[in-house]
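Hey all, sorry for the wall of text incoming. These are the three entities for the joint prediction.
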Amino acid sequence: MKILVPVKRVIDYNVKPRVKADGTGVDLANVKMSMNPFDEIAVEEAIRIKEAGKAEEIVAVSVGPAKAQDTLRTALAMGADRAILIETDTEVEPLAVAKILKAIVAEENPGLVILGKQAIDDDSNQTGQMLAALLGRPQGTFASKVEIDGDHVAVTREVDGGLETVKLALPAIVTTDLRLNEPRYASLPNIMKAKKKQLDVKTAADYGVDIAPRLKTLKVSEPPVRVAGVKVADVDALVTKLKELGVA
Amino acid sequence: MIEREEMPYDVVIVGGGPAGLATAIRLKQVDPALSVCVLEKGSEIGAHILSGATIDPKALDELLPTWREDGCPLAETPVTDNWHWHLTKKKKFGLPHLVMPPFMSNEGNYTGSLGNLCRWLAEQAEALEIEIFPGFPAAEILYDESGAVIGVQTGDMGVDREGNPKADFQPGMNLLGKYTVFCEGARGHLTKRLKARYDLEADCQPQIYGIGIKELWDIPADKHVPGRVIHTQGWPMSETDSWGGGFLYHQANNQVALGFVTALDYKNPYVYPFEEFQRWKQHPDIRAILEGGKRVAYGARAINEGGWQSVPMLVFPGGVLAGCSAGFVNVPRIKGTHTAMKSGMLAAEAMAAAINAGRAQDTLGEYDTAVRESWIAKELKLVQNAEPMVAKWGGEIGTVLAGADMWLRTLFGFGLAKPMKHHTDASTLQRADLYQPIAYPKPDGVISFDRLTSVSYSFTNHEEDQPVHLKLKDASVPTAINLPFYAGPEARYCPAGVYEFVDPDGAGAKLQINAQNCVHCKTCDIKDPTQNIEWVTPEGGGGPNYPNM
Amino acid sequence: MKTLVWVEHDNASVKDATLHTVTAAAKLGEVHLLVAGSGCRAAAEAAAKIAGVAKVHLADNAAYEHALAENVAPLIVDLMGHHDAFLAPATTTGKNVAPRVAALLDVMQLSDILSVEGEKTFTRPIYAGNAIATVESSDAKLVITVRGTAFEKAAAEGGSAAIEDVAGAGDAGLSSFVGAELAKSERPELTSAKVIVSGGRALKDSETFEQVIMPLADKLGAAVGASRAAVDAGYVPNDYQVGQTGKIVAPEVYIAVGISGAIQHLAGMKDSKTIIAINKDEDAPIFQVADVGLVADLFTAVPELTGKL
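and here's what came out:
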């Protein structure tokens, strides 16, 4: 079985994004960028499936700028076998990404596509589900456990209030949640070796996909700032407040 | 024994700052066949770089003469306007340019982010097929039986707090070089070991330092004068009998970079460099520039202030020191990028010639000589008494004497005094009972801020479950000595709030080390009065993630 | 505009998340609901009473019991033939189903909206809420997930919508439900708790943390969190941490005890509906965001509070 792992280059999770003064977006100039943390978990899971002897090849794919090659190299250093970059200088929405991935799936025929449940920049949480829809294949979203069993995969999902397990016919699409695994480090020897692994660069046009955006961002602003409320004099007053809030 | 992979290179460079990148680029310019790698402990090139910066492009002109046309971000903002202010608490006095030696002029210089210059240099380096490995610190020096440096070992990844390997343990790797270049910046932890092992400071004064704390602000367009650079002296350091000064540079994109350097030879243990910076910003003439603006980044880094007399022997078997690892900052000009880069280029030229002559892992005496015959030496000798004169006679008289000394050296080639001596910064701290605690103003949340909020603007993080990278040689010293005699100075000099005394007045007083906050400035390693704190490198990729700093 | 709202239910009653979503849908136009499930007529009847609802579509079929996206998405796509917008609460079910519907309709979804600014214009959080984007859709139909806390609940009573049975294709044969394991810890989980009591460094040590924080949390049925400083100091394990690299929480009520309010911590809890702070230091940054503050020594105030509840 082949596993396809889509990954996205996003702002590093340690960096607090700064809204541009002119409201056109978030300032990403010279800001540290990394692989989307949920996608890192997806890469790790793919490697573990391969290490367990249930997959032969891992192909990492990214849709993004030329620098997303660094992100793919990280995936290769972690253990992916080869990579494909769909290079574009514009932002590509989840629907268009799903369409590109659909075309790649048609070429590569993976048994499993595993990707992050959402990217920490646009927080859309859509691409995996959309890809599953376009392919007419089942989806196991927000996975905290993935078990391949013959021609099926059992996915334990993190749902509101607990966990739920579904059984999906392969090929299937799985999206990862935080507790699925702890991704490994890309070690220095593996980073050196990753430089020699195959990385193909293509464009959306190569797959005949229209990536024109459907949503127009009119404005990006800072979230409203919380303002200080009241100070109460003593515990009794606090008890009254808690009762008003209905928690006591 | 952990099995470690090895990789041989012609040259291994420790540190991806201006010196390291200039070294790498020069090596490839001289001989494209050389294999060169650069290790950088930050998560990316530029992540740990913090400087003013107003940069003299002299070395950049020599290294990459077409940098202005090649998209280098530094080219964006030439210095157009240069001010020196002497501050009193409420007022400022502009110092006339006439009294300052000509090299103090910033004409022809550029102001911008040194981090971004490094990011650009790294792109040039990668185009030359230099291998850059961000996120991998050099943790140990490797020696052969003869005692020569043969390379470095990168840090292990995935070690828990107690030092045991975790499930994701990845052993560090040995990178072997015919020569290894150490350009770790001021107070590099490996440089410190090399200085001791090879007694590199035998014939020079000890290095001394300042702690520079910096912020980046967006300011209203109508207050922004791109290319204007301002330096201040006087208040607030005049209040604490210590010295230091501020800078404020109008850079590109309606941003100003501003900061304050406190010399670490201060005596009063109550001096609180972070708070000195915060109150400096409240000076009416600084505040006026910031009002209506917004802080976007914060950080801190120790800076060399020893000048020429503190430059150690630069070579030892198998390796060399370059950049701030050696210490080429021109203190009155507050500039060291050009000298750091130049030293790297000279090292590169010496190494390339030696390697092509079949040499390896020997002592590159010709590099040491080249530096001492270069314009680095000429420039630094002119100013070598500036810092000690201020240190000895105080900010006001010292500045006048330093100015006179610099003028004499400029005009006649001799100064007021012979090269003066330094005392280590750790040795200058005096007992707390000789001083009164300093009442610093509370932050207003608009212009001045609290320290922890500030640290969050350095975008610092470290893996939580790893050994504390700030080692105490003796764990009892903080509460047995530092707290009772010096009122716990580490709680104040650390710009990131790493050191915190819990219950300082009670019987259960103890030092809590919040290693996760560390911005890698090295001040603790420098200023701890008994030199009990040792800064070692944490897991790779940890530390600040400075943008545009 | 005719909207179709996905109803979350337990076969008998309608979950609150639905009521918030109805409010968002009502801003766009006529509200129709879809109750899909197995043996869920009672839920449809409850849904019909929600104020402002014009029609309830009931799809009662064993294949819809667990709301598997593979099965319910085609059903919704069918209904979207005569609706202009599909809205689902941004719950794990809504987030699972809506994008599948959107892709089948060739529509770019609007996730987690915070407000309705116009017929096709909405605000939504990006970068983990560090920025708010105002976006306009150019698609003919809309697919939306709705952040519950951003919209008031619609009244559960007062409506009398007609219930219309709809048939769907049923089981797509791609997936099946195996089982569920609902969290049954004595204490609610941090990320889903309605009330959180969180302790900081001021609690001195792990015993004191236990003695002061736990009884209050027990009284309130609250989850327990901690600041990074308290975690670093070893009072509680890592998974209690709220804020930087810890969890991001947004309960109805967040009670911060002895937490000064370092910005990393604030980032982890600033979306809480009500923040209550108890701290000795009246200048503590936590008071700048707290809705209710009590300046007091926590070692006396918290036991007193626990006793009086």
